[in-house]
Amino acid sequence: MPGVYVHGYSAEESERLNAQAGILSGFIHEKAIFAPGSRVLEAGCGVGAQTIQLAQRNPEAEFVAIDYSAESLAIARERVQAMGLGNVEFRHADIHALPFEDAEFDGAFLCFVLEHLAAPDEALQEVRRVLRPGAKVCSFEGDHGTVLPSPDDPAIHRMVAAIVRLQSLESGDACIGRRLCPLLRSAGLRNVNVEPCVAYADATRPQWVEQFTLATITEMFALQETGVLSRGLLSEPEWRAGMKGMRRAACEDGTFAYTFFRGTAER
Amino acid sequence: MPGVYVHGYSAEESERLNAQAGILSGFIHEKAIFAPGSRVLEAGCGVGAQTIQLAQRNPEAEFVAIDYSAESLAIARERVQAMGLGNVEFRHADIHALPFEDAEFDGAFLCFVLEHLAAPDEALQEVRRVLRPGAKVCSFEGDHGTVLPSPDDPAIHRMVAAIVRLQSLESGDACIGRRLCPLLRSAGLRNVNVEPCVAYADATRPQWVEQFTLATITEMFALQETGVLSRGLLSEPEWRAGMKGMRRAACEDGTFAYTFFRGTAER
């Protein structure tokens, strides 16, 4: 049974996911190239931020995108249709019990999905079940333990710790990136290869400061405010200090880094 | 006035620096290519771990390698001679007051040096002084804030915090990597470009587990034990728990990541 999606389903979150999909698309999709004619499962497509990229970058592949949230799925479907992309089919489904036969798919793609699951190993085994031998798996996850601001600021680390705690209360793991390799291997996948991808912003890379430090990460944190404060994981002044630290890292003499983990494997 | 070299001058440290120079040489030297005929300053050559690589990778450039420690310099000189490398000259000198004319050099290289200085900005300005306009600067630094073990272990983070504290007591900054870009820029260098380089080890990369997680990072931490314990920054059981955590991350289902920052710039 999947938990609540910790980032929420708001319009702001939808917008944030688009900014994130843009600036991070190179990292996320570099290895997500599937052979022409492939039938590929996108497990946990959410509002379709990555689905659009997948469908555009693999015009000769066919995608079946599933999500547990009917609401997200409706948004994803609308967006994919608006883009005129004809190679995506949507299904309302639970990653833990996929409505597909064994070995139906030639590939699978999962982006920012495993972090939200109580048993990501079981979900990966279910994904593996519906893949044919030799099928390619691409996954991409973050790790909040990699938050690296300059100037360093304990208030940021307290805020991130509270966000990690919130996600764990909802049975997720915001620090799953470092576990991606052992997870893929223990699901019985072969030829596992995990690469860290650092998103890094400094004054010489203003587009990363704007679109990554501020529009992706700071905004992602901002969306957790209600959850963190309502559960008493931080006080309001503590929260404000953390957000102030993030904005400080986006100043002319600041820097910010965050590491994602991109995994590929075969059934 | 430079402080004490926090890693010490032991034979173990010399050996560790060699292991580190080997596994990390791609990261460290990828951009450290100097035009034939260049005269290049290596500021803070230590026992010559990088000097050998520099001289081998740039056989048509000439290097002047300086260090504040006469003892390290003697080891470096011996090693470079033993390798039969004829394009390195050694000088006993202080990076804060270089015994060179303005604009004497066509390039500069600094690796794991700024982290040990009380005023890295002033040292960079002095390096800049001896460079001709257009000269290339290559620098490489780590950042202990990027230590990312799996399984995660608070004992490791306590140990790393103590090591960071020890280095700060000796006027250094073990978390300088994130500051490299603003430091290079504030020294008046142009075309600054800083790239994060993640060293990452998991069971699919056994040479990284052995040579990086264990022989480079765990060994670097181990060499701090006396300093940390004698200053009471950790208890012995706390220290042992941290080291145990590091060895745990090197097991079959563990992972370990650490991020370096590679900066290039021009005078």
Detail the topology: elements first, then pairings.
The structure is a homodimer of 267-residue chains.
Chain A: H1 11-23, H2 25-29, E1 39-43, H3 49-57, E2 62-67, H4 70-82, E3 88-92, E4 105-111, H5 120-129, E5 131-142, E6 148-150, H6 154-169, H7 180-186, E7 190-201, H8 206-222, H9 225-230, H10 236-249, E8 255-266
Parallel strand pairs in A: 1-2, 1-4, 2-3, 4-5
Antiparallel strand pairs in A: 5-8, 6-8, 7-8
Helix pairs in contact in A: 1-8, 6-10, 8-10
What can you tell me about this protein's structure?
Two copies of one chain form a homodimer. With 267 residues, chain A is of the alpha/beta class. Chain A has ten helices and eight strands. Chain A has helices at 11-23, 25-29, 49-57, 70-82, 120-129, 154-169, 180-186, 206-222, 225-230, 236-249, and strands at 39-43, 62-67, 88-92, 105-111, 131-142, 148-150, 190-201, 255-266. In chain A, strands 1, 2, 3, 4, 5, 6, 7 and 8 form an eight-stranded mixed sheet that branches. In chain A, α5 links the parallel β4 and β5. In chain A, α6 (154-169) packs across α10 (236-249) and α8 (206-222) runs antiparallel to α10. The longest helix of chain A has 17 residues, at 206-222. The model of chain A has no long low-confidence stretch (mean pLDDT 94).
